[in-house]
């Protein structure tokens, strides 16, 4: 029986809990949230406001589905006791923090799983992670899908064009796919990010291009309806990553 802890009670967290509750071999260890949980179909004690060492010791995998700040404040402590799936990839932008998390995972024999989320094609990118020469990714979203809101929501505009590291610092809840893309290719400083706010759009559009040292090119383009600040595919994508979770070695992996 795999015991799963969930951090966050938004669309992704709720979908995960529902999936865990009906899936053989999975058991809900806890839901960590600052928002009161009302009417949930599981024991009251499962909703917690503190992740104690005793609770983490009885948990196999913790899935963060809340905010990058959770990784900064709790990531290393979680990895002392359990594996960690990081949905908010912005929590891996800080190089020192990321190195500390990986070191903690290796020290304790734990896994850090970065799910593919909105990034279709991640397997193809990680299949030759050391062979990419250049990488760029563009996200076009309607203004209501940004947090914080763009400066002028009534006009289509490029609100960022530069290294992925910079856009992740400005919009930490909006660019998880960009961060994952950069980590899987040429890095946060060498990967180019273009973020566009367009009020004429009713869906999000993501496009990326990665060029290999041998001249090979991978291009992906997708559109997706929005669910808050994320695409509507995200809850199902994270559940799919949970089903792929078994079988990786300790350290940083992608799922």
From TrEMBL:
Domain Aspartate/homoserine dehydrogenase NAD-binding: 8-115
Molecular function as annotated in GO: aspartate dehydrogenase [NAD(P)+] activity; NADP binding
UniProt xrefs under Pfam families: Asp_DH_C (PF01958), NAD_binding_3 (PF03447)
InterPro entries, alphabetized: Asp/hSer_DH_NAD-bd, Asp_DH, NAD(P)-bd_dom_sf
SUPFAM superfamilies the record matches: Glyceraldehyde-3-phosphate dehydrogenase-like, C-terminal domain (SSF55347), NAD(P)-binding Rossmann-fold domains (SSF51735)
Domain of life: Bacteria
Span of domain Aspartate dehydrogenase: 156-217
GO BP annotations listed: NAD+ biosynthetic process
Protein family membership: Belongs to the L-aspartate dehydrogenase family.
Protein's recorded name: Uncharacterized protein
Organism in which the protein naturally occurs: Microterricola viridarii
């Amino acid at each position: 029986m795999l015991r799963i802890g969930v951090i966050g009670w938004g669309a992704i967290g709720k979908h995960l809990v529902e999936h865990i509750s009906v899936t053989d071999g999975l058991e809900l260890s806890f839901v960590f949230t600052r928002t009161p949980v009302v009417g949930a179909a599981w024991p009251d004690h499962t909703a917690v406001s503190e992740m104690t060492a005793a609770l983490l010791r009885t948990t196999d995998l913790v899935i963060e589905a809340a905010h990058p700040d959770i990784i900064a404040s709790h990531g290393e402590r979680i990895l002392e006791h359990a594996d960690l799936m990081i949905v908010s990839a912005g929590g891996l932008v800080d190089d020192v923090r990321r190195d500390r998390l990986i070191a903690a995972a290796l020290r304790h024999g734990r896994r850090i799983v970065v799910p593919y989320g909105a990034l279709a094609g991640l397997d193809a990118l990680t299949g030759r992670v050391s062979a990419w020469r250049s990488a760029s990714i563009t996200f076009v979203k309607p203004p209501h899908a940004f947090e914080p809101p763009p400066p002028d929501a009534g006009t289509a505009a490029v609100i960022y064009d530069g290294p992925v590291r910079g856009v992740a610092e400005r919009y930490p809840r909006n660019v998880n796919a960009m961060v994952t893309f950069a980590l899987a290719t040429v890095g946060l400083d060498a990967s180019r990010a273009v973020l566009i706010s367009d009020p004429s759009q009713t869906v999000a559009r993501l496009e990326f291009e990665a060029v290999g040292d041998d001249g090979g090119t991978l291009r992906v383009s997708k559109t997706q309806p929005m669910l808050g600040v994320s695409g509507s595919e995200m809850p199902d994508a994270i559940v799919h990553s949970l089903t792929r979770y078994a079988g990786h070695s300790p350290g940083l992996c992608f799922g």
